[in-house]
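To close the section, here is one more complete example, presented without commentary so you can practise reading it yourself. The ligand is nicotinamide-adenine-dinucleotide.
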Amino acid sequence: MNLKGKSAIVTGAGRGIGKEVALLLAKEGASVIVNDPGVGRGGEAEEGAPADDVVSEIKAAGGNAIANYDSVADYANAGRMVKSCVDTFGKIDILVNVAGMLRERMIWNMTEDDFDAVISVHLKGHWNMCHHATKVMRTARHGRIINFSSDAFKGSVGQCNYSAAKAGIIGLTRSIARECGRYGITANAMCPMAATRMTVNDAVIAGWKRRLDAGLLTQAQYDARMAMPGPEFVAPMVAYLATDAAEDVNGQLFHAERSRIHTYYFGEEARSIFKQDDEGMFTVDELISMVPEGLMQGIPNIAPKEDPK
Ligand SMILES: NC(=O)c1ccc[n+]([C@@H]2O[C@H](COP(=O)([O-])OP(=O)(O)OC[C@H]3O[C@@H](n4cnc5c(N)ncnc54)[C@H](O)[C@@H]3O)[C@@H](O)[C@H]2O)c1
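Output:
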């Protein structure tokens, strides 16, 4: 057991990736707060308490866990969740922020509520939990924070709220890593890919089928999506990042999918154009010729203008 004696909070742990993370942390010996209000895919209230089922599963396997049903989007609730971990298990060693939901629309159709709700659960929810947890972890001079971003940080059609939140989570994580590393706290982020209700559901499959029929997806691309691996493949890397063995892995971003994990080149300077100090500022006329020749050569428009049909 690699996490014996540790205590952890896993948010959004009633289903999907969070559930698999909670089960594995408990199997590795950690005591776990299983947080999940059991909301729908869009954050709407639903019947049932999936957190209870996960707690039962952990206990049946001989592990230690309690359920929490609060929303991470609420600052005070997040504080109470951290307090309950400390009160129940004596400390908080590990925080895994998995909670998430989607409200997908093109930007011109997206309501203010769609934007605010997604930012509140993902970006603000991460900040709420990290803020309260780091207060305790800093005093203890130990902590492991694993946040959940997404490859949507690169930009994703119909998900500008989600993409913005997930890109924000990378900046948040890297800032926490820099601020807290000296206190023995690490903060890393995951970009997973796994079949859950968020990624593979009836509506999504119908959309893939329409795109296949319209020739916008190849059969191979369609088959690969239909064979998306399960969320259990993401959990081992999260559990590893929570161990003492990962004490020098800090401020990093990992993609996990099936039996493959990769890092990213991130934020490094790529191409540049420059003038000597005595040549003054760029003029707009100079940039009109120098940007395509220098900075953008070989880099296509990611979404070129189309003629109206
Ligand atoms: N599945 C993927 O391929 C994928 C890809 C990229 C990123 N992610 C991210 O991974 C995380 C987990 O996604 P998943 O696919 O397991 O989704 P999921 O819908 O299966 O599980 C998310 C869980 O979060 C809970 N939740 C929602 N709002 C909450 C709130 N305010 N407070 C606490 N819990 C809340 C839900 O009740 C649900 O059980 C999310 O942050 C998601 O954005 C997933």
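Once you have examined the tokens, check your reading against these statements. The chain has a mean pLDDT of 96. The pocket of nicotinamide-adenine-dinucleotide is lined by residues 11-12, 14-18, 35-39, 41, 43, 50, 71-73, 98-101, 121, 125, 148, 150, 192-194, 196-199, 231 (CB under 6 Å).
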